[in-house]
Amino acid sequence: MNAVTHQAESQRFIIELPKGAAILEYKMLTEDRVDFTHTYVPFRARGQGHAEALAEAGLLWAKQQGYSIQASCWYVDKFLKDA
């Protein structure tokens, strides 16, 4: 599995893949509230755990920062409901 990289200046987490990047985008709503807005994995890379790795990395980061978390992205929202 490729490494997840946090690109804070772009408000996203990415995994570089041979045919493009898997991306988890977020938006800071306030200084202590984050909204995970969109997850994308290239078609040929789906079903390999990339979206899950992105969601886990993003949520771990937000929790470590002490942010309150919301997810307008349905995929990340599943992780919040399971927690």
CATH architecture: 3-Layer(aba) Sandwich
Order of helices and strands: EEEEHEH
In total, how many beta strands?
A: 5
Kindly report the name of the CATH homologous superfamily: Gcn5-related N-acetyltransferase (GNAT)
Largest sheet: 5 strands, mixed
- Sheet with most strands: strand arrangement: 1-2-3-4-5
Helix content: 25-40%
Tell me the domain tally. Answer: 1
Report the portion of residues in β strands: 35-45%
Explain what you see.
The longest helix has 16 residues, at 50-65. A hairpin with a 4-residue loop joins β1 and β2. Strands 1-2-3-4-5 form a five-stranded mixed sheet. The protein has one domain: Aminopeptidase (3-Layer(aba) Sandwich). The chain has 83 residues and is an alpha+beta fold. It has helices at 50-65, 74-82; strands at 5-7, 12-17, 20-30, 33-40, 68-71. It is built from two helices and five strands, in the order ββββαβα. It is 30% helix and 39% strand.
Q: What keywords describe this structure?
A:
single chain, 83 residues, alpha+beta, Aminopeptidase, five-stranded mixed beta sheet, globular
Task: Indicate the topology.
Blueprint: E1 5-7, E2 12-17, E3 20-30, E4 33-40, H1 50-65, E5 68-71, H2 74-82
Parallel strand pairs: 4-5
Antiparallel strand pairs: 1-2, 2-3, 3-4
Give a short synopsis of this structure.
The chain has 83 residues and is α+β, with helices and mostly antiparallel strands. 30% of the residues lie in helices and 39% in strands. The chain has a single domain, classed as Aminopeptidase.
